[in-house]
Amino acid sequence: MSRGLSTAQRAAAKAPHRMAIALVELHFQGGLLALALSPWDVTHAGQTYQRTGALMRIEAAHESSKSFEGIKMTMTGLDASVMTIAANEPYRGRLVRILKAYVEPDTGALIGSPVVQFIGRIRGMPIQENNETCTVAVMAEHYEAELQRPAPLRLNNADQQRLYPGDMGAEYADQLEDKVVIWPTREAMMK
Asked: How far is 36 from 47, CA to CA, in rounded Å?
């Protein structure tokens, strides 16, 4: 897909020896955790993405026109600070962005600005430990999946009383549900 790519990025995508890396942004309450799926640290727009190399894996998203499956990122053997964030930070609902960056194979410099490939929210972050390694899996759901869920609130008196006890603004909303309203009435037109 070349939509949103600069001319240099399009040329890099078509080159026989192209190189692209994934930049992952996990937005936690304590700050941004920026990781690069590469063997070196990557700096873009003043932000340094910490190298993960082969320690991180992103599993492919299986999406169809009617569903948004999301992604799963697995991180093993990372820095202790990453494990601390996974164990202590409230993660549910936090923003995840995955960017695709084209890289000059000879110098390792970024070609243009990275392009957003995925935006979603963290759904789960299970940690598996044994005597030798610690693995963190970040499961994220695409942001459009939220649009497929039904709205949890209805315009009725019960929801209004739950949110604002004593408010009578939706007192007659239930009675209006099946009412047929014809506007303008014949009487209004006669005046």
From this structure: 11
Rounded to whole angstroms, how far apart are CA atoms 103 and 92?
Answer: 32
Map residue 186 onto helix, strand or coil: helix
Query: Is the link from the previous residue into 16 a cis peptide, with omega within 30 of 0?
Result: no
Rg of the chain taking only CA atoms, in angstroms: 25
Q: How many Å apart are CA 119 and CA 97, to the nearest integer?
A: 5
Q: How far is CA 28 from the centre of its chain?
A: 12
The separation between CA 32 and the C-alpha centre of its own chain, rounded to angstroms, equals 14
pLDDT digits (tens, 9 = 90+) for 79-103: 677 777 777 888 888 999 999 998 8
Q: Which two tokens stand for residue 144?
A: 């459009």
Beta strand 71-76 pairing with 56-59: antiparallel
User: What six digits make up the tokens of 93?
Assistant: 């609902």
> CA 129, 137, 143: angle at the middle one, nearest 5?
160
Q: Rounded to two decimals, what is the model's pTM?
A: 0.71
Distance CA 36, CA 26 (A): 11
Question: Phi first, then psi: what are they for 21, rounded to 5°?
Answer: -130, 160
SS3 74: strand
Q: Provide the mean pLDDT of the chain.
A: 83
